[in-house]
Amino acid sequence: MSAASAVPSPAAPPPPPGTFEILARDATTGARAGRLWTAHGVVETPVFMPVGTQATVKSLAPWELEAMDCRIILANTYHLALRPGAEAVAAMGGLHAFESWNRAILTDSGGFQVFSLSDLRKISDEGVRFRSHLDGTELFMGPRESMKVQRLLASDIAMAFDECPPCPCGKDVAEKAVARTIAWAEICAGEPRAEGQLRFGIVQGGVHADLRRACAEAVCAMEGFDGFAIGGVSVGEPEELILPGVEMAAPFLPEDRPRYLMGVGQFWQMSESVARGVDMFDCVMPTRLSRHGSVFTREGRYNLKNAANRLSDRPLEEGCACPACQRFTRAYVRHLVQAREILGVRLVTTHNIFRYLETMKEMRQSILDGTFGAFRARIAAAYGPGATTNLLR
Amino acid sequence: MSAASAVPSPAAPPPPPGTFEILARDATTGARAGRLWTAHGVVETPVFMPVGTQATVKSLAPWELEAMDCRIILANTYHLALRPGAEAVAAMGGLHAFESWNRAILTDSGGFQVFSLSDLRKISDEGVRFRSHLDGTELFMGPRESMKVQRLLASDIAMAFDECPPCPCGKDVAEKAVARTIAWAEICAGEPRAEGQLRFGIVQGGVHADLRRACAEAVCAMEGFDGFAIGGVSVGEPEELILPGVEMAAPFLPEDRPRYLMGVGQFWQMSESVARGVDMFDCVMPTRLSRHGSVFTREGRYNLKNAANRLSDRPLEEGCACPACQRFTRAYVRHLVQAREILGVRLVTTHNIFRYLETMKEMRQSILDGTFGAFRARIAAAYGPGATTNLLR
């Protein structure tokens, strides 16, 4: 009986949402391969979550993401609260029904956008009064409002509402933001949730190790969080401060819970963060850069607009199994990008998201196989500091 | 043997390109159902050809058009000659290989765009010297140049280079344009073609019955054309002059050759033109209006942006089998259009092109079934003069 019970029968119900299993750990780094169960399926970690700000991963249809085995996408609370409005999404059956996506969705808290996109009016201990960047409407969002919006959206993972100051900022500003983030986390943790919805706490603290640790310890001590995020790490600081930010926070997050590094998504940053114990990532980079003709490959990134690609009959990436590479030449996709045709954006985005998801699968498999060190070295060579192809640096 | 030979064996080669079979004629109108064989498959007529100006039907991938059973698309010679250039397309194996479309392609002559889009420099009996609307480069296009570009593109159907004056214009201008169109047609008819490429002559003459007839008789008397087009009928004239333009030309085009009405593509205009003997159509309307949220249905056209659709859980059109209607609500697609998301354009375009192709299939089937009269009446009710849903009028 014991051998049989170790293998779940096909009819066994899935583990409850929030179950996080660590299947393998790298011997020499903090990297781990796991899986996180949600109300809309299982997410294999480490994972990259494509960003679907306005309830769509820009230019892609959901069946295209499904065909790539994408298991989780992100949506932005701030944008959806403004348009079409959380109540409208709820009236349409929640975000999954609205955008016809039956897999996992993580919503951010809206905090980052309130601070970065809106015409900021006034921040208080209750939240933020701001003007919509769309039409100037005056609105208010605090921890209760954010949790309510995310409850109406009915995402699988809701994020606590935090204060995310830009970098650089004085230590007094960072200190104040940490205090508010902790107080707001406490409120968020006590708010009702949508059915099966998980909730993640967020650690702020900027570039200050003592603030990061204090914030992590305070938030992780609260009841009611299923995972924890490192926030305020891709908010204008120089590249050199990103990994230190991870190092200041990750060691103080519980081992048995998923760790999510918000807004970070360069390949090298991700492999290095995974080595430091991070499991989840999101970033607009692969979708945003697609619109400018940037193509990610195993060997590095290149600009499709380069004249060298004008008559190239090669696919975007040799040996790639994505739908764009299976059918089109660089010459054609370059023409579409130059002519600003929608199909150009679609094809480059298709390839880039495919490459991102494949890279994360390879990363995960390397942890399972005990070859993460070699994987990490390959990514560093193609995308790390000094890699000539890493045009973004 | 005679019974067996009437049914071609599966291994029989297709008829040579240019073969045009008329399978049925309507008893009381000039409508006919046929099929036109090209080097890239058979086209069932009456047919609507989606416009793929820059070697892409805007926002759609070729597999999406294939899935809709689209058999022929159009590409614009002027745009492709400017970017990426006819030689570049030829170097990539011709337009079919370039855009990965293995079905039929019709290219226009470039004449219409040279006259309407470019910074016009000088028109002579040899052709037109003009400046590119992209970068101001001075270029020349006449009948020989147009046929050469279309030969390099290697389309299935090339159009003769014509002079297409705007409407209104004086009769002297129309007369001069007809003279040039005839002279240029003579040159085009003598130019070499790509392998298997068909060539259509064009009838001009504006709103003048005598000029239309003279032009038709002259062009149709020439050797070397596989079909004939009515041009200069959607170039600024009031709606009431479109069908008269067809009536002035169609009777003088040979019965046994396909007839193509260029640039006309409202449903009612098409059914009325089919009643007058036309077989082929193209129009940017279904792709262009998609970008503004206009949805074509069996019952008429509506604007998705209307507030009434904000919380609608209906598909774009009830009972529609297109991929957009199979999966998404009006509320969601409307949100995407409002938020200017690419997926919104994709989904509305998908539906509209699907509706166009289905409508043409229904029109063709009604001719085969002897029920074209009822079909024509239904289209007139939904889209004809006085139809409240025909927002374009």
How would you describe this structure to a colleague?
The structure is a homodimer of 393-residue chains. Chain A is of the alpha/beta class. Chain A folds into 2 domains: 14-283, Alpha-Beta Barrel (TIM Barrel), CATH 3.20.20.105; 290-382, no CATH class. Chain A has helices at residues 2-6, 62-67, 77-82, 86-91, 95-99, 111-116, 143-153, 171-190, 209-220, 242-249, 267-275, 285-290, 323-327, 330-338, 342-369, 372-383, and strands at 20-25, 32-38, 41-45, 47-49, 72-75, 104-107, 119-124, 127-131, 138-141, 157-159, 198-203, 227-230, 259-261, 280-282, 294-297, 300-303. In chain A, strand 8 (127-131) and strand 9 form a beta hairpin. In chain A, helix 8 packs parallel to helix 9 (209-220), helix 11 (267-275) packs antiparallel against helix 16 and helix 14 packs across helix 15. The radius of gyration of chain A is 21 Å and the shape is globular. The model of chain A has no long low-confidence stretch (mean pLDDT 94). Chains A and B meet through helix 14 and helix 15 of A and helix 14 and helix 15 of B.
Largest interface: A-B, 37 and 37 residues
Instruction: Give the oligomeric state.
Output: homodimer
Q: Largest sheet of chain A, if any?
A: 8 strands, parallel
CATH class of the largest domain in chain A: Alpha Beta
Beta-strand portion of chain A reads: 15-25%
CATH architecture of the largest domain in chain A: Alpha-Beta Barrel
Proportion in helices of chain A: 25-40%
How far from one another are the termini of chain A? 56 Å
Strand line-up across the major sheet of chain A: 4-14-13-12-11-10-6-5
Outline type of chain A? globular
Please compute the radius of gyration of chain A using only Cα atoms: 21 Å
Structural class of chain A: alpha/beta
The count of domains of chain A is: 2
The CATH homologous superfamily of the largest domain in chain A corresponds to: Queuine tRNA-ribosyltransferase-like
Output the CATH topology of the largest domain in chain A: TIM Barrel
Residue stretches of chain A low in confidence (pLDDT < 50, at least 5 long) are none
What is the average per-residue confidence, as pLDDT of chain A, rounded to a whole number?
94
Count the E strands of chain A: 16
Q: How many alpha or pi helices of chain A?
A: 16
